């Protein structure tokens, strides 16, 4: 078990706010949301919600802990999970229920917020009952893990902004040395599973999934799960079970415009000793 507090403390010197970081912008209109409708709210029965992103016509990427009931520690009923693509102001661009949900095989739900290994495996795929094939909802491709200092962005839902997604176009990777990314992005309860994007030449690709929010010497940061290791294994498991490969592979998406029972866990790291 690798203590998360040590990793957080190690990135303290890099955690100073940068002038080029942007604030969250609520995507209230169709014009605002253009190119982002493959991000949706993931409702889990009547107990809360997470954020998820379509990475193939039938696959939603999210956090593994969203699939567990916090009170009992048991897996939630898959039939209770609904993905609402592009949900804003009471309507979604597409609604789908879950057919199957697959967490990382090494993920163990529990009070392990201080365990780097647990956060590093906090990833899941949800297979939808029907693929989403709409011109306005194009699945996102994924890309390799970013490095410390890289510019990223995030689209998420959260407590007090559950009615529409919010875009933070510019935040940064503070530490990317392990399977857990320390990010300067703004997250809150409900942002769990939100996609972290690298945007290059107008193309947004998912590079991480939000697992938790944390605190480094009084400053809020986000913890993201890297995709390089667990995602190919999860996809292979789905394909081996007879899923049409066309439904679990996605092209790149060009961004043309666009400015609580579950949710991100909260962990706090003590300040480093002088």
Please tell me about this protein's structure.
With 274 residues, this protein is mostly beta strands. It has one domain (4-264): Beta Barrel (Thrombin, subunit H). It contains four helices and 16 strands. The chain has a six-stranded antiparallel beta barrel with strand order 9-10-11-14-13-12. A six-stranded antiparallel beta barrel has the order 2-3-4-7-6-5. The longest helix is centred in the C-terminal third of the chain and has 11 residues, at 230-240. The chain starts with a helix and ends in a 5-residue tail after the last strand. Residues 252-261 and 264-274 have low confidence and may be disordered.
What is this entry, summarized?
By secondary structure, the chain is mainly beta. It has four helices and 16 strands. A six-stranded antiparallel beta barrel has the order 9-10-11-14-13-12. Strands 2-3-4-7-6-5 form a six-stranded antiparallel barrel.
Oligomer: single chain
Report how far apart the termini are.
25 Å
Anisotropy-based shape: globular
CATH class: Mainly Beta
Which consecutive residue ranges, at least 5 long each, have pLDDT under 50? 252-261, 264-274
Order of strands, main sheet, comes to: 9-10-11-14-13-12
Q: How many extended strands?
A: 16
């Amino acid at each position: 078990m690798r203590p998360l507090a040590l990793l957080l403390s190690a990135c303290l010197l890099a955690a100073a706010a940068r002038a080029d970081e942007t604030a969250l912008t609520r995507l209230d209109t169709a014009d605002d949301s253009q190119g982002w409708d493959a991000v949706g709210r993931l409702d889990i029965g009547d107990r809360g919600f997470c954020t998820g992103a379509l990475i193939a016509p039938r696959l939603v990427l999210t956090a593994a802990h969203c699939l567990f009931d916090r009170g009992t520690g048991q897996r939630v009923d898959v039939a209770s999970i609904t993905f609402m693509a592009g949900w804003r102001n009471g309507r979604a661009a597409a609604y789908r229920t879950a057919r199957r949900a697959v967490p990382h095989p090494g993920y163990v739900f529990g009070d392990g917020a201080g365990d780097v290994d647990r956060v590093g495996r906090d990833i899941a795929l949800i297979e939808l009952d029907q693929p989403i094939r709409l011109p306005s909802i194009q699945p996102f491709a994924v890309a390799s893990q970013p490095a410390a200092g890289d510019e990223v962005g995030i689209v998420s839902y959260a407590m007090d902004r559950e009615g529409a997604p919010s875009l933070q176009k510019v935040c940064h990777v503070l530490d990317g040395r392990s399977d857990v990314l320390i990010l300067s992005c703004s997250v809150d309860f409900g942002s769990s599973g939100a996609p972290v994007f690298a945007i290059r030449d107008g193309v947004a690709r998912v590079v991480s999934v939000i697992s938790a929010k944390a605190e480094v010497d009084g400053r809020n940061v986000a913890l993201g799960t890297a995709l390089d290791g667990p995602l190919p294994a999860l996809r292979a498991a789905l394909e081996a079970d007879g899923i049409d490969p066309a439904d679990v592979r996605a092209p790149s998406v060009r961004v043309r415009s666009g400015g609580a029972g579950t949710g991100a866990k909260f962990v706090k790291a003590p300040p480093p000793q002088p």
